[in-house]
Design brief:
By secondary structure, the chain is of the alpha+beta class. The chain has a single domain, classed as PK beta-barrel domain-like (M1 Pyruvate Kinase, Domain 3, Beta Barrel), CATH 2.40.33.20. Helix 5 packs across helix 6. The protein is globular and about 60 Å long.
Length: about 230
């Protein structure tokens, strides 16, 4: 597993459906492999942001629980086929870290996973829920519906150890709780998607409500649903 692109961006104002919208979803690679200069740049990572990165709407994006957004590069191929004619450079989905490796796919990653890259340690906190700004970035609202349908959502992380990283750095799973729900399971539960055959929604809701790394709003949401099922 490795980082193949580090992407950052400052908020900008764009026209959308007749009004001005401020968004930080436009990210550009600042460290990528292969690097034109030979050695990829190193990028600092703080508690709330990567160096050079910023979120526009802190009520919805950013904050300690969503400091770093991770997206698997494996999704770019399917997206390229579905979004014909749309350019998809690394960072196109607003992610900070574009990764390579099956263990970083949504079906494998679990809430509370501790990931290390460079001198940085991250803890996985929640799936990414798509909003209309993704449609602004890619020029079509269809991408929102398809992200919900396919589960190609990526995930957010909190920063538990500040440091620096760069494209080409290996990513290791320092800790994984196999009893915790996966990103894929939580995304489908939250968006109304179907779980895999044999998966018990009530059992997964129970595990989600106990996941300490999951933000309180998510845990409360799943706990309320669990209580409704049991009541």
């Amino acid at each position: 597993m490795e980082l193949i692109s580090i992407n950052v961006g400052r908020p900008r104002s764009v026209e959308w459906k007749g009004r001005s919208v401020r968004t930080g979803i436009f990210k550009s690679p600042v460290s990528v492999i292969p690097a034109a200069s030979g050695q990829p740049e190193r990028v600092g990572v703080g508690r709330l942001n990567l160096a050079g990165d910023e979120q526009a709407d802190l009520e919805v994006h950013g904050g300690p629980d969503k400091a770093v957004y991770v997206y698997p590069s494996e999704h770019y191929g399917p997206w390229s086929e579905e979004l014909s004619g749309v350019e998809l450079p690394w960072g196109a989905f607003g992610e900070n870290l574009t990764t390579r490796g099956d263990e970083l796919l949504e079906s494998a990653v679990r809430i509370g996973d501790r990931l290390r890259a460079g001198t940085v340690e991250l803890v996985v906190t929640q799936p990414r829920l798509p909003c209309y700004k993704l449609g602004i970035r890619l020029g079509t609202d269809e991408v929102i519906r398809r992200m919900v349908e396919t589960g190609r959502c990526g995930f957010y992380c909190a920063v538990t150890r500040e440091g620096e990283l760069g494209a080409g750095d290996p990513v290791t799973v320092a800790e994984r709780d196999v009893a915790a729900p996966s990103i894929d399971q939580l995304f489908r539960l939250r968006t109304g998607g179907a779980l895999a055959d044999g998966e018990d929604p009530e059992e997964i809701l129970g595990r989600a409500a106990l996941a300490r790394s999951l933000p309180a709003e998510w845990r409360e949401h799943f706990l309320a649903r669990l209580e409704a099922l049991e009541g």
